[in-house]
């Protein structure tokens, strides 16, 4: 899989380069290379939908709902900690419970999702979201 992705990336790099190099022979080469590069980018976006079965997509929807529910519970816990009388212990218990739930769902999600996002980027996004939402 990784090798195929690397080859795909090299094709994306090579096609415009070849098209630009052949421009002096015929400008049509550049146009064809640009069109092929654009089509490859579009196909790459649709590849998960074309290669995953309906059952997997249905499971992804269910997992998305479960993750959204967990996120909502965490948001409620943080809000009650900041506004209501929830203690550090209550918040820690809630976060530990939710982390266990996430750790149970993550392997299933990883087995279904073809392209797992970069964890560091995902962590940054989550941190930015929490900071913007709750001014932590």
Write a short abstract of this structure.
By secondary structure, the chain is an all-alpha fold.
Please tally the β strands and state the result.
Answer: 0
Output mean pLDDT: 79
Strand content: under 5%
Q: Give the radius of gyration.
A: 22 Å
Secondary-structure element order, as H and E?
HHHHH
Low-confidence runs of at least 5 consecutive residues? none
Overall helicity: over 70%
Give the key terms:
85% helix, 136 residues, elongated
What is the fold's blueprint, element by element?
Blueprint: H1 2-21, H2 27-51, H3 54-83, H4 88-112, H5 119-134
Helix pairs in contact: 1-2, 3-4
Q: In words, what does this structure look like?
A:
By secondary structure, this protein is an all-alpha fold. The chain contains five helices and no strands. The chain has helices at 2-21, 27-51, 54-83, 88-112, 119-134. Helix 1 (2-21) packs antiparallel against helix 2 and helix 3 packs antiparallel against helix 4 (88-112). The protein is elongated.
């Amino acid at each position: 899989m990784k090798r195929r992705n690397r080859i795909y990336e090299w094709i994306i790099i090579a096609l415009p380069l070849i098209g630009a190099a052949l421009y002096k022979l015929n400008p049509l080469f550049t146009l064809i290379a640009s069109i092929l590069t654009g089509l490859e980018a579009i196909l790459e976006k649709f590849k998960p939908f074309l290669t995953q079965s309906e059952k997997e997509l249905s499971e992804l929807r269910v997992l998305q709902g479960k993750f959204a529910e967990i996120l909502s519970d965490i948001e409620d816990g943080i809000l009650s900690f900041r506004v209501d009388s929830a203690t550090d212990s209550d918040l820690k218990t809630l976060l530990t419970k939710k982390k266990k739930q996430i750790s149970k769902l993550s392997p299933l999600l990883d087995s279904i999702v073809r392209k797992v996002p970069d964890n560091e980027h995902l962590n940054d996004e989550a941190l930015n979201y929490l900071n913007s939402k709750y001014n932590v």
